[in-house]
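Annotators were shown the component list below and the corresponding predicted structure, then asked to write short factual statements about the assembly.
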Amino acid sequence: MRLEHWRYIIPMRVRSLFRRAQADRELDDELRDHLEQATQEYVAKEMAEEEARRQARLDLGGIEQTKEKCREARRVNWIHDFIQDLHFGVRILRKSPGFAIVAVLTLALGIGANTAIFSVVYGVLLDPLPYQDPSRLILLNETTPLVGTVSVSDPNFLDWRSQSRAFSQMAAVHEVGFNLSGISQPESISGEAVSPNFLSLLGVRPFLGRDFDASEEKSGAAPVVMLGYSLWQSHFGSDPGAIGRTVQFDGRSFTIIGVLPANFRWVEKVQFLEPIGTWLVTNPEATERGARGDMVVIGRLAPGISLAAARSEMEGIAARLAEQYPGSNDQFGVLLTPVREAFVGDMRIAILSLFGAVICVLFIACANVANLLLVRGTGRIREVALRVAFGATRRRIVRQMLTESFVLALVGGGLGIALAVAGSSAITRMLPEDMLMGATIRLNPAVLVFAAGLILLAAFLFGLAPAVRSSKSGIYVQAKEGSAGTGTAGSHNRLRGILVVVELALCLVLLAGAGLMMKSLHLLLSVSPGFRPERLLTMQMELRSPQYDKDPRVINFWQNVLDRVRALPGVQGAALGNNIPLTDNHGRGDITIEGMPQPKPGSYPHPDFHSISDGYVSTVGIPLLQGREFVETDNEKGAPVVMINSKLARQYFPNGDAVGKRIMFGHLDSSKQWFTIVGVIGDTKMYGLANPARLEVYVPFHQSASSDMDVLVRSRVEPSAMTAAIRGEVAAIDKDQPIFAIATMEELISASVAGRRFTLILLGLFSGLALVLAAIGIYGVISYSVAQRTRDIGIRMALGASQGRVLRDVLGVGLRLIGLGILLGLVGALIATRVLSSLLYGVGSTDELTFTAVSVVLTIVALCASYLPARRAMRVDPMVALRYE
Amino acid sequence: MSRPSDLVQGTLDMLLLKILALEPMNGFAVSLRLKQVSDEVLQVSDGSLYPALHKLEQEGWITAEWKTSENGRRAKYYSLTRLGRRQFEKEAENWDRLSTAITRLIKLRDA
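Structure shown to annotators:
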């Protein structure tokens, strides 16, 4: 029924819309035909011809009106009106290009900034993760009371999976790295060892090849690998024939069985996947319950199960396991996190704050354009009055004015979208890759729909009040036959004043936010990292090939590197060490302190470990507080020694007698060695400048070999100039050994505040924009009020008012607006900056100094903007002003 | 005198549909027929007739065609569509129900 209906109606509407002239002609013909027949009918009733014609017309009741009613029946009239208004609007705007350009640019900035930031909001927060039903995916970690979130042990995962009913599936995901060799430049790649059901749990199918097989869960599985799309592209030239070929990972041959889809994302960078059964072959220790490496578990909630239900079930399971295996699990809990949160991380607050900021900018832009329109409105009173006189209804006038606004918004929005294209790619470049977690930021259809919505919203925001105003004043003038609409000028000015106050207030909120961020970043960058970062080069290596399967070989390689690098010209000092500051790299474990009461498994001291060479402390510039640092004789033959950081010393040796005491790695075990503490050194910032120090233990690499190390070089010259020479020395020892993560310490510090800097730069940009717009706004209002009062001012000056007096009066108007704006803005800022508090460092969200400073800045800028028109008022020539009409 | 506004809402549509169900005709003929059949009780002004016809056409209930009449003039002839027939049946049924109910109500004796 409905379908048939539309089959009739659509052609009808289309015809009414596009063949309007013909439809009108036919209507004319039809009615003329009717009149003729009706006249004849009356003539037949013996009426005079003239009289008959008149009667027929009378019956039809006003031909034009009837025609209009028939046209209305077509229901597409509004479209015609709209098109007419559109033409008219474009024509009117072309007549005042100055106004149009200012309005369009203002709107372009407002809409452009919003669109660009929304593309980030969409890409990071809204874009559905490329999984099936991602809201049901939960990440699981273990927790301890002392450390918080820790990795999961494989046996615990297996027990979770067999005991849990709340999850329909679970998979283990273990972070792994490989050295990819046998290619021109050896490189280090990262990926995951996963349970075979990992991809099917996510609802992801390989782009090419096969998925893992259930049999590949058990240790002993053949070495197979699924390549990430970009690795496949860069190393196999996107060749589908890569399936079945082998690659050299850590010197072992892996058969390529598949390729991941291009849009695959995971919470860490994934360049490949291998089945956990393959991984266990080289990592047999992972099957111990107490071994917690780098594993998380992903689970899919069973149908109908809530996160809370799953959480309580899992907590029960963890508690039972803790009872069952107290040696490894006592005090260990479980943490469930929706996978989306793991992707977004700390980005959410920063992004939402920026989104709030751009919305403020858009409001300010709209208020400015509304102000411009109000000024124009007073100039157009006569035009509106004329149209009212010709029978335009008020609704019709409002509609026409809104159409003009729409034209402005459309042009401004179009330009804004172009700005957003440039803006969002600039934003992507500014954002560190690891913060994006594979999110793509671009203008996709969702963002464009948002931009279109903004255009409509903006047109109403800035257009409605002026349109209603001027339709009212038009009618008013017509009734009063007034000369210049003086009656509405007062309320006009009030509305414009309110708009400016709102602009100033919003501007202050943005300035306050930017000010707080700036102060935080400044404070943060002046935090000491605990060492001297100048001219310190770092580069990382991981020894993975079979030739380094024995500790002596590893130690030998590192000593070789160290000796060669120290011999290079320009090197002031060189050392080796792993898990260096500000990289977030870490290795942790429990330690036992000799003589301390044995704690529960979850309550051991759990410091970060560093395997370092002699000279590390002096090269990196960490203060030595007690004892000595490692020397060359702290090797395999020497007594086992460690250094600890000051926090560990304070916490566990409060009497300051740490040096000489002994610790053991892991839990008490008669087969293990005791290490003597020989030195206490200062705390260093391991995980960003804002985070507190953790417990740290340093051990000589000769006594605890580590396959991954950083080379640290303090140079006499620009440190990055040393890179090539160091590369050469490493290649001379082993040409297949990749070097990666090359950075100066200063770059690492800068990267560690990248997220905050990103927020600050954008917030600063937006508040600057807001400041300019608000200044233009108050300038406009004051200029207009001066122009309106020219005659007034002239009279007063003729009566002897001094120039200074006039200046003070005009500035007084501005000051009142500024004062109100700042007052309102301070209240707003007190509320709004609270959301920033987690991004701030060392400064409260209501920092008086910042608030005062930004208020002063805003006042000065706004006063300058008011001063320009005020000076004009001061120079009014009374004679000219009085003659002016 | 009855004006269209006195007609029960939708009644004019129903009348027009019924008239056009008998045979296709032009606007003037509809006007005449309307006056004849209703004994001039339901006098619909020509000024209301045409907008009503156009509305029915836009709804797809009637369709129009330009035809040459017997006296050689081109005129716009309206005829009922399938949709229109169904619409008429629906409205007639409604009308029946309504008028029966009202009649019954009017004839109620005072208790």
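Statements collected:
1. Residues 794 and 879 of chain A are 7 Å apart (CA to CA).
2. Chain A has four domains: 2-75, 146-330, 347-526+754-883, 546-735.
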